[in-house]
Amino acid sequence: MAGVPILPAPVRGERRAGRPFLVDATTRVVVAEEPEAVCAAVLLAHRIGRAAGGPVPVGHRDDGEPGAVVLRLAEPGGLPLPPGLAPDLAAEAYRVEVDHARVVVTAAEPVGLLRGLAALDQVAVPVQGGLAVPSCAVLDHPRFAWRGLCLDVARHWFAPETLRDVVLLLASLRMNTLHLHLTDDQGWRIETPSRPRLTEVAAATSVGGDPGGFLSRPEYAALVVFAAAHGVTVVPEIDVPGHVNAALHAYGSLTPSGEPRPPYTGVGVGFSRLHAEVADTLPFLTDVLGDVAAVTPGPYVHIGGDEALTMHAAEYDQLVGHAAGVVVGAGKTVVAWQEAARARLPAGSIVQYWDEQTAPDAVLAAVRDGARVLLSPAGRAYLDTRYDRECPVGSEWSGRIGLRACYEWEPADVLALPDEDVVGVEAAIWTETVATPRDLFWLLLPRLAAIAEVAWSAPERRGWPDFERRLRGLTARWDLAGVPWYRPGLET
Ligand code: ACM
Fold first, then answer.
1. Cα(302) to centroid of ligand 1, in Å?
2. Ligand 1 in contact with 270 (CB < 6 A)?
3. Between the chain's N and C termini, which has fewer beta carbons within 10 Å?
4. Ligand 1 midpoint to CA 269 (Å)
């Protein structure tokens, strides 16, 4: 039986004989009474309503009649999943069964229903008056628990509307984490009440003199809720102890001279730093990380830690250690770039591997001490790079990355670690050269789809020709929705 055009590739998916299920204005959505499942059902009804040209009802009672899309929460063990599948992976598992009479999506947790609906979206085809969903059966769960995108909103600012579009894109690819790189030399992008000058003074700039901006607390809270409704966790990054010129510009109390630093709109890295001997430094870390943790319901706060190139190890260790202590004290798990591995992070921290040019000894030692690794190898997962020589936007410092190179790599080979030590895979897009939503989406797509599949699908489910074939279904949808994507990338 032919496969189903789902991307990332599912564990099992097959077309079945028989007529498709027709979604139209008479379709009903039936859902369990759990609030989060109801939220998924309402999102589904909204999508169906748009395709069918009128509202469709959501109810709790399943009378078994045809014409229903049923969202069910299974009892634990109610889905046929591999024994011993980790709970965070089982939470996102789903089963989809479609015949001409009904669609049934089953999951152990509401987030699994969202993943099932994202898959269903990809098999549905527009027809007159609504959608046709081919008869099929899908059973699926992710390989890795963390499938993310790090988006740099500090070098260039992207407004909440664009961030919501990114969330929708991630959810459509069954990715679950939006890591926001909120602070850097060029701007501070989150309102931080204990230190108001960070956004009053240091949010207005971007690279090249482009306009800045920031998320107010209500805007950040709204984004977090929007993302959660789509099964996406927001991970805020406050990058310390380097990459801090914006903070030094806002507060002269953070510099040895007491004078604020001038704003910075260039693209250099590694020149700015906090100073352990300056009296305001530790209170500053306590204040800003405390503020960000307080407004973040998700379990993680990222403390950066990369490229503090002008700091001795002992001072670095002290500052990173303090930052990590604040995050743990706020009840969150520390995430940090790989450089921070040397600072003996709290057990259970997540170390984000990116720099393939540096020996990973400290990262591997951190794993032996109980850390897990998030894989963002720059040569595969840094999507600010150009696809090819012709690509009009993007950087080249980590090479050019064509779609195929983005797709054909195996996470277990990066550091020779077993899957238990790898929390997941995250793409990153740095925005020194990326100033508009169009350029952002161009660089992301189609490569983000490749990263999504590397992170979700087991190696035996992946293969280039089949990926290319399924990708054509996605690019057609992006075209219909007006989502920009980079075409020559398909051939590279
Ligand atoms: C990084 O690319 N500096 C994390």
1. 13
2. no
3. N
4. 9
Residue nearest atom 3 of ligand 1, based on CA coordinates: 306
Write out the chain in H/E/C secondary structure: CCCCCCCCCCCEEEECCCCCEEECCCCEEEECCCHHHHHHHHHHHHHHHHHHCCCCCEECCCCCCCCEEEEEECCCCCCCCCCCCCHHHHCCCEEEEECCCEEEEEECCHHHHHHHHHHHHHHCEEECCEEEECCEEEEECCCCCEEEEEEECCCCCCCHHHHHHHHHHHHHCCCCEEEEECEECCEECECCCCCCHHHHHHCCECHHHCECCCECHHHHHHHHHHHHHCCCEEEEEEEECECCHHHHHHCHHHCCCCCCCCCCCCCCCCCCECCCCCCCHHHHHHHHHHHHHHCCCCCEEEEECCCCCCCCHHHHHHHHHHHHHHHHHCCCEEEEEHHHHHHCCCCCCEEEECCCCCCCHHHHHHHHCCCEEEECCHHHHECCECCCCCCCCCECCCCCCCHHHHHCCCHHHHHCCCHHHEEEEEEEECCCCCCCHHHHHHHHCCHHHHHHHHHHCCHHHCCHHHHHHHHHHHHHHHHHHCCCCCCHHHCC
What pLDDT score was predicted for residue 330?
98
Q: 337-390, pLDDT tens digit by residue?
A: 999 999 989 999 999 999 999 999 999 999 999 999 999 999 999 999 999 888
The alpha carbon of 351 and the centre of ligand 1 are apart by a number of angstroms equal to: 12
Task: Please tell me if the CB atom of residue 387 comes closer than 6 angstroms to any atom of ligand 1.
Answer: no
**Catalytic annotation on 161?**
no
**Residue 353 near ligand 1, beta carbon < 6 Å:** no
pLDDT band at 490 (very low <50, low <70, confident <90, very high): low
What is the residue with the minimal CA distance to atom 4 of ligand 1? Answer: 306
**Domains of the chain, CATH where assigned:** 12-140 (3.30.379.10), 146-491 (3.20.20.80)
How many angstroms is it from 106 CA to the middle of ligand 1?
Answer: 39
354 lines ligand 1 (CB under 6 A): yes
Mean pLDDT over 59-87 rounds to 91
Instruction: Please state the pTM of the whole predicted model.
Output: 0.97
pLDDT at 353 (0 to 100): 98
